UniProtKB/TrEMBL annotation:
It comes from Vibrio eleionomae. Its EC number is 3.4.-.-. Functions as both a chaperone and a metalloprotease. Maintains the integrity of the outer membrane by promoting either the assembly or the elimination of outer membrane proteins, depending on their folding state. This is Putative beta-barrel assembly-enhancing protease. Belongs to the peptidase M48 family. BepA subfamily. One of its GO terms (biological process) is proteolysis involved in protein catabolic process.
Amino acid sequence: MFAKRTRSLLCLYTATAFCSLNPMLSYAEGNELPDIGTVAGATLSIDQELQYGDAYMRIIRGTQPVINDPVMSEYVDTLGHRLVSHAQNVKTPFHFFLINDQEINAFAFFGGYVALHSGLFLYTQSESELASVMAHEISHVTQRHLARSMEDQAKQTPATIAALAGSLLLAIAAPTAGIAAITATTAGSLQGRLNYTRAYEKEADRFGMQVLAKSGFDVMAMPRFFSRLAAESRYSSKPPEMLLTHPLPQSRITDSRERAQSYPQIHPKASLRFNLARARAIARYAGLSEQAALAWFNRTEQKTAPSVESAFEYGKALVYLDNKKLQQSEKILSKLLKSDPDNDFYLDGMSDLYLALKQAPKAQAMLKKALDENPDNSVLLINYANVLLKEEKYESAIQVLHRYTHDHPDDPNGWSLLSEASSRLGNSEEDLAARAELLALKAQWNKAIQYYTQASQIAKLGSLEQARYDARIDQLIVQRERFMALQK
């Protein structure tokens, strides 16, 4: 399994290289950050980074509690791409995802993948603070810090960058063997690596702060978050996991504070969507009892801006819903939805409530109306497919899910619902095909190929379906071989 020790190792590699210490001139003076180059391109191409990133992500899906929550995923993806749109040297697509872990942490790796622990929603107090963490991780990716870290390691040892990247991949897939492989190929003093890490983190802070400012966030949120994190570390027997992978000496806090003061000060209004996502995280991913969650909402609501009070009511509604107190939940959600009928958070919550109340037709009508206004909304589409499935309208659900999985092939929700709908309809081969896609998303290649082979054997001889299954088998075999080759 991908244990905490291995996850920390991955984070260490995403935070152990910085190949230039060129100073950044003041933003207030109108100067841009210097282009410090992408020297790692000589030994690891962007295409290779994309291949490794895809491989790492498949392993993480199979070993980590990735949160496949459409509403939360849409929020972090939207926020992340808002930041990316103001970043420099963007050479890869970006993918943002959540891991259900109460530890405060975030990390980035090859291919533009940025992971956030759900614990960040418990700890960050504003969207600017959450954005500061994401901007920092985005900067690790845009500056290709991981590849350059490996390049530096390769200079110290006979290992190639490909060998180091393969060892890291192996570490995630098989921790014991992988850690041994990395140890054998990363000679050099521990102190040297620690010093590198500190300089590297400061550089990511500098680039991240520029992204934060250009995106319209409060730049002071970064040193504010750092200071609170450091304070918690001082009074805790166990430091937050983020400090184990992102060293935070006082000099880094001071540097970020001084740098933030050189930017024009922006004080954005409290974000309702951030607070809704935060409320959802507290209600469903914090591991709190009903009483503890409700107490948190009541306590925190008293200290927040009136413009976002509805987020805390939404959180209470989810707690009531998840604890089968449907009348209390309906009273709140009905009021919220009436005040903001296009809000995805409220539509998703009300859809779940209608299903709990055995009122699926109401959910279908509500979502159909919302989709008429916003037909490409992924949150509405997956909820609509789920409602159709619960109404036993399997053919209609499958039609929606074919479109959804085509547009969102990496979302397990679509394949899972498609598998269930196909099974209920008695379509065994399509059930097997959907289950195969779920397995492929987790790098379980052999079983995925086996399921597609079974689907091909069931399908009518010479049919288009059989041809499609056989073509997909060929694709999966190629993907499996490429995946295995990356570990060598």
